[in-house]
């Protein structure tokens, strides 16, 4: 078979069929002796196993026939499953010497006196030497109509013939395929032995078929016998493997997927039966490994990416990177980043990074693409058409973006992480999503990230430059803004809880601290970064817009809180303190009035000041 690849392939298919053949549970009433009931009833005069074949005047007991039928059927099933040794043991237990002797012919011929290397394993000869003679002897037994149908079927199979119709009528698609392939194998092996003069002519006592069917003819024959079974998708795949036509079947499977995507079909087998997608995907991967280029790269990619989505649907996250490893790098980046972009559970995310690194996937590029993907997908959600207002809530899209940036932090890509933190902060602040930025900073140690950022630059021999220094300063500015917003929220809570039992001196002290810190933030927030000559025009416009949104907000909110405190705590000087901010807004050094103009808040602020002035006595 090493010289004949086709026969070798048939043998492999037969081994596979045997291993997947289900054998029913051993019957309880298998006989332990031959013809015992017939001897007791007087229908048989001898205990000789062959006596019924030699004498026509005997009467076999019905129970003996039933037990024999049960025994032969079980032996036949064992042989089809490749369990010849087990069948031999059953024959010994049943005291069926005939079957024992016949099954010895299946064993490979080994003689410990000649094959000395196996002398320690066997004391006596194994198998038979004249196999062709044995085959014909067994074949002649299969033609005896007086024998039990399953006994004849055993002999037919062993002689590489097709069993009688009484047995074949209960056969299924797999069994038929097995039987016909067994016939091909037996005929072709004997033909080879004859051609090479390895068979004595005195063994050819009975003529046997010397022409075998082709595998294609066998499959057609099996299909004609089992038309409905042959249409099952798995059997179609089995046939395509046997006929070496898998690439076309795989392409057809991809077309079926595309038909559903395009809306041409609402459903089909490949979509409705996930196990089929799994089988086809595995076949595509395996075939591409053993025969590179035999599967179209686009077909393999579509199957794997679809199967990866199926794994995600069923929560089988740890399997996803394994399949992603079989994609080209570009396809891997797209498919895997799509999956990662939706993962939020910290343990699942950590496990994904571990498996990526273990499989040596391009983890850095995958994580970068994941973050990039989410920024791109959510961009339209952060393109407001109306006036921007500062909001103190957070939505799912904000969290989705936060999780995307955290992939870079979890993957220890600190240079990329810093760039993404800047992009995230700007996007949130430009859209008034200050609470979202607060959540991000609370979840992540930005100070530690910045330290690791600098260490990574040193390790990668990245030279220091002013631009990178500005990035860290910008992050610090955003942290200060978040702390200022937190103080604002804390003060609001304190006012809301104000009652007759409140500690007024403590409240006044807290208000003074809030006022001083906010005033300092107003005077410094992004001031240096918007005055640097090195900053490019795009960055300047973005930072100026952020400053124009939050500086007026901080001034007006601090003003309102001081006036409110003056009323609630009955301390008029807080009103005067609120009005002192007008000089800060109007002075030409800071030019904060330009920020009010830019944000459209100048009139609102002037109205606020005017109302406050009326409160002075």
From TrEMBL:
* Task performed by this protein: Functions as a component of the nuclear pore complex (NPC).
| A GO-annotated cellular component | nuclear membrane
Q: What is its main location?
A: nucleus
Q: Check the record and name the Pfam families matching this protein.
A: Nup84_Nup100 (PF04121)
Taxonomy, top ranks, is: Eukaryota, Fungi, Dikarya, Ascomycota, Saccharomycotina
Domain of life, per the record?
A: Eukaryota
Q: Where in the cell is it found?
A: Nucleus, Nuclear pore complex; Nucleus membrane
Flavoprotein among keywords = no
User: Keywords for this entry?
Assistant: Membrane, mRNA transport, Nuclear pore complex, Nucleus, Protein transport, Translocation, Transport
Q: How does it assemble?
A: Part of the nuclear pore complex (NPC).
Question: InterPro entries from the xrefs?
Answer: Nup84/Nup107 (IPR007252)
Transferase: is it a keyword of this entry? no
GO-annotated molecular function: structural constituent of nuclear pore
Family of this protein: Belongs to the nucleoporin Nup84/Nup107 family.
Q: What is this protein called?
A: Nuclear pore complex protein
Q: Which GO terms describe its biological process?
A: mRNA export from nucleus; post-transcriptional tethering of RNA polymerase II gene DNA at nuclear periphery; protein import into nucleus
């Amino acid at each position: 078979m090493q010289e004949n690849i086709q026969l070798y392939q048939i043998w492999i298919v037969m081994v596979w069929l045997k291993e997947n053949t289900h054998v029913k549970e051993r019957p309880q009433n298998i006989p332990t002796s031959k013809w015992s009931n017939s001897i007791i009833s007087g229908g048989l005069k001898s205990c000789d196993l062959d006596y019924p074949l030699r004498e026509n005047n005997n009467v076999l007991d019905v129970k003996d026939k039933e037990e024999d039928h049960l025994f032969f059927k079980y032996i036949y099933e064992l042989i089809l499953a490749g369990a010849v040794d087990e069948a031999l043991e059953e024959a010994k237990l049943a005291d069926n010497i005939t079957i024992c002797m016949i099954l010895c012919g299946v064993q490979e011929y080994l003689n410990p006196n000649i094959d000395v290397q196996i002398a320690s394993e066997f004391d006596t000869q194994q198998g038979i030497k004249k196999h062709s003679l044995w085959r014909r002897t067994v074949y002649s037994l299969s033609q005896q109509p007086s024998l039990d149908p399953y006994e004849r079927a055993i002999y037919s199979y062993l002689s590489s013939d097709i069993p009688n119709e009484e047995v074949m009528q209960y056969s299924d698609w797999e069994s038929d395929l097995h039987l016909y392939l067994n016939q091909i194998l037996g005929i072709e092996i004997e033909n080879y032995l004859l051609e090479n003069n390895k068979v004595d002519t005195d063994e050819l006592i009975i003529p046997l078929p010397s022409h075998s069917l082709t595998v294609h003819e066998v499959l057609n024959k099996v299909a004609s016998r089992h038309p409905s079974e042959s249409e099952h998708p798995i059997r179609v795949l089995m046939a395509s493997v046997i006929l070496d036509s898998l690439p076309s079947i795989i392409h057809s499977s991809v077309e079926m997927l595309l038909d559903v995507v395009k809306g041409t079909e609402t459903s089909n087998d490949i979509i409705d039966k996930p196990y089929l997608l799994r089988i086809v995907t595995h076949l595509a991967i395996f075939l591409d490994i053993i025969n590179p280029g035999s599967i179209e790269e686009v077909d393999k990619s579509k199957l794997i990416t679809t199967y990866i989505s199926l794994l995600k649907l069923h929560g089988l996250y740890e399997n996803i990177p394994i399949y992603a490893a079989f994609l080209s790098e570009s396809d891997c980046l797209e498919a895997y980043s799509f999956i990662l972009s939706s993962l939020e559970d910290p343990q699942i995310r950590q496990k994904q990074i571990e498996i990526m690194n273990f499989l040596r996937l391009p983890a850095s590029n995958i994580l970068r693409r994941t973050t990039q993907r989410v920024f791109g997908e959510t961009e339209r959600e952060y393109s407001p058409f109306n006036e921007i207002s500062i909001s103190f809530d957070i939505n799912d899209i904000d969290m989705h973006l936060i999780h995307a940036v955290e992939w870079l932090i979890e993957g220890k890509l600190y240079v990329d992480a810093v760039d993404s933190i800047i992009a995230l902060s700007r996007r949130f602040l430009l859209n008034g999503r200050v609470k979202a930025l607060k959540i991000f900073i609370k979840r992540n140690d930005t100070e530690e990230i910045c330290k690791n950022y600098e260490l990574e630059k040193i390790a990668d021999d990245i030279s220091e430059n002013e631009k990178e220094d500005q990035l860290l300063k910008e992050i610090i500015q955003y942290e200060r803004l978040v702390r200022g917003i937190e103080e604002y929220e804390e003060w609001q809570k304190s006012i809301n809880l104000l009652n007759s039992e409140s500690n007024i001196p403590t409240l006044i002290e807290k208000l003074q601290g809030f006022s001083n810190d906010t005033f300092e933030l107003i005077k410094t927030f992004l001031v240096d970064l918007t005055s640097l000559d090195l900053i490019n025009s795009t960055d300047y416009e973005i930072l100026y817009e952020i400053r124009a949104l939050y500086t007026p907000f901080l001034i007006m909110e601090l003003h309102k809180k001081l006036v409110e405190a003056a009323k609630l705590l009955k301390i008029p000087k807080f009103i005067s303190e609120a009005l002192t901010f007008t000089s800060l807004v109007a002075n030409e050094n800071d030019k904060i009035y330009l920020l009010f103009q830019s944000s459209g808040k100048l009139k609102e602020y002037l109205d606020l000041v005017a109302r406050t002035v009326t409160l002075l006595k």
